[in-house]
Amino acid sequence: MPASKPDLSNEWDRDKLRNWMSNAKRMNRLDVYEDAFRQLCRVEGRNIDDPLEAAFAGVMRALEEALTEESGRTKRLSRTRQKHMHGLPLTTEITPRLVKKLTSAARNAAR
User: Fold this and answer.
1) Which pLDDT tens digit goes with each residue over 42-53?
2) Which terminus of the chain, N or C, has less C-beta within 10 A?
3) Cα distance between residue 34 and residue 17, in whole Å
């Protein structure tokens, strides 16, 4: 009988959510991992009033987490954040290499 699924919707501590993700991965509980990952992304946009801005913050967190997991080292999209905060256009070119990297990160995150 599988263990019950925890309700992480009221967990806002990043360290605890990362711990949930780590434990879920170790115990092969993809459902718990995904819930913790989604909640971790929601934390980023929690205090932002504009829904679009909040969604953007969540996407940035998701990408940073995927890149960090892929490389084994902390990765931050600081240049993208800096451009966004100053109202400069985001000019990241979507290349085959970037698509391959994002696809690989998404696959690894799902494991």
Assistant:
1) 998 888 888 888
2) N
3) 11
